[in-house]
Specification:
The protein is 30% helix and 27% strand. By secondary structure, it is of the alpha+beta class. The protein has a three-stranded antiparallel sheet. It is globular. The termini are close together.
């Protein structure tokens, strides 16, 4: 999914449901969970934040060459989700 596609889908939901509707992240199709979203980050921002002297990043497999990417960052599990999310997603 691209940023433009995500914005288009979110705009459709905003128009239908209002701008104050909470957005959650559904993960793990086989054992679904609903998760909070803590924020967004680009690959470029992650690479800039990576300090090579920091031991936490020694084994980080981030690809410095693929910086044209945006990630939705999960902020914690809320409850169990529904497998129907994958059937209905578009």
């Amino acid at each position: 999914m691209t940023v433009d596609q995500l914005i288009e889908r979110l705009t459709e939901y905003r128009d239908a449901m209002g701008g104050e509707v909470e957005v959650r992240l559904m993960t793990q199709e086989k054992w679904p969970f609903e998760n909070r979203i803590v924020g967004l980050v680009s690959a470029e921002e992650m690479n800039e934040a990576c300090d090579e002297d920091d031991e936490d990043y020694e084994d980080d497999e981030s690809d410095d060459e693929v910086e044209n990417m945006v990630y939705i960052v999960e902020g914690g599990q809320i409850c169990y989700g529904s497998k129907r999310a994958w059937e209905a997603a578009h």
